[in-house]
UniProtKB/TrEMBL annotation:
Natural source organism: Knipowitschia caucasica
Protein name: Matrix remodeling-associated protein 8
PROSITE patterns: IG_LIKE
Region (Disordered): 284-313
Lineage: Eukaryota, Metazoa, Chordata, Craniata, Vertebrata
Annotated signal sequence range: 1-17
Length: 313
């Protein structure tokens, strides 16, 4: 009996993990915006992945499934098994029951490796381990090719440039490795305490480390604003920001004093999101004066007009 055993670890982007809110995060957008003085301006900051939905079913939002693609005797795709936390694993083919399995602890220890006992010729194929996290909208998969041989001399394992290939002896046991220890696959609770959005402001000439915090928003509903601008209702953010995934910063009436660098940070520690959007705001001359009494009602999704927006560095 041979037990092949390889650790295939998923990519672990450096942005994930224990980041504190002072860490800069990944810049997903950076642009210069010029808007007329006196206008109602919006600096956009939206991310559907930051939408705070109560995970009532908790763990059911996570799923692992193993599939196999066979090319002989004819092409076929088959679901081998699937599992969610709190539910028994489902083995699809009755021949595999008791022979093919995952650890019941998979969603606690992050080891989703597939164990196949008493390997038969028809086990040959390309296996995929698929991890879905619906709440975080994260989907990952890895492929492993399994070949079966009758000769112990031909047993081997290697990386073919795309996937692990295992050639195993008929009748032996094999572990198809699939390990992902990122907390998001292993823990289910307390998401709401780990979601934060905040805006920073840097006036011209001010160093990045002296940027001024404008506002902190928490998915729990808590909000802290700093400085007088929010209280004077000069700046605002939709009170339903976490419901809409829209953290755009609105200015009631843009003034030349508002120029500078604005940064929107979105942190979702549980899902591993750390995004930063940066806007260099310039205030141009006012557009043709409109009597303020007839100004149209405020719309929450106004984007700066494309002609006045310069995209990117
Ligand atoms: C994962 O689980 C398999 C099967 O239970 C086991 O053989 C293997 O040692 C485990 N791998 C790790 C990295 O824990
Ligand atoms: C494994 O099987 C595939 C498909 O039959 C074949 O193309 C490949 O050469 C085999 N690899 C090994 C090392 O046996
Ligand atoms: C944005 O403004 C900065 C500073 O004025 C400038 O260095 C940069 O080239 C501008 N980027 C674009 C795309 O205009």
């Amino acid at each position: 009996m041979t037990l092949f055993h390889i650790f295939a670890l998923f990519f672990l982007p450096e942005v994930l993990g224990q980041g504190s809110s002072s860490r800069p995060g990944v810049v997903v957008e950076a642009r210069n915006i010029t808007l007329p003085a006196g206008s109602r301006a919006v600096l956009p900051c939206r991310s559907p992945r930051m939408v705070w939905t109560q995970d009532r079913l908790k763990d059911r939002q996570r799923v692992v499934h193993w599939d196999v693609v066979r090319s002989s005797p004819e092409y076929s795709v088959e679901r081998v098994l699937d599992m969610s936390p709190g539910a028994k694993q489902r083995v699809y083919n009755s021949f595999n029951k008791g022979r093919v399995s995952l650890s019941e602890e998979a969603f606690n220890d992050g080891n989703f490796s597939l164990v196949i006992n008493n390997v038969v010729t028809t086990d040959k194929g390309v296996y995929t381990c698929n991890l879905h996290h619906h709440y975080c909208q994260v989907h990952q998969n890895i492929q492993i090719q399994l070949n079966v041989t009758k000769s112990a001399r031909k047993e081997r394992r290697y990386w073919d440039g795309e996937k692990t290939v295992l050639v195993v002896l008929l009748g032996s046991s094999v572990v198809l490795p699939c390990v992902n220890r990122r907390p998001l696959w292993r823990e289910g609770a307390q998401e709401e305490q780990q979601q934060v959005a905040h805006w920073d402001y840097q006036a011209p000439g001010v160093r990045p480390d002296r940027a001024e915090r404008l506002v902190d928003l928490y998915a729990s509903g808590e909000r802290r604003d700093y400085g007088p601008l929010f209280r004077q209702h000069k700046m605002s953010i939709d009170p339903d920001a976490f419901t809409l995934g829209d953290f755009s910063l609105s200015f009631a009436e843009l003034s030349p004093a508002d120029i500078g660098l604005y940064s929107c940070f979105l942190h979702h520690h549980y899902c591993g999101i750390q995004e930063r959007r940066i806007f260099r705001l310039t205030v141009g001359p006012p557009t043709a004066a409109k009597p303020s009494t007839t100004r149209p009602p405020i719309q929450s999704n106004d984007l700066p007009e494309p002609s006045k927006t310069t995209s990117n560095y």
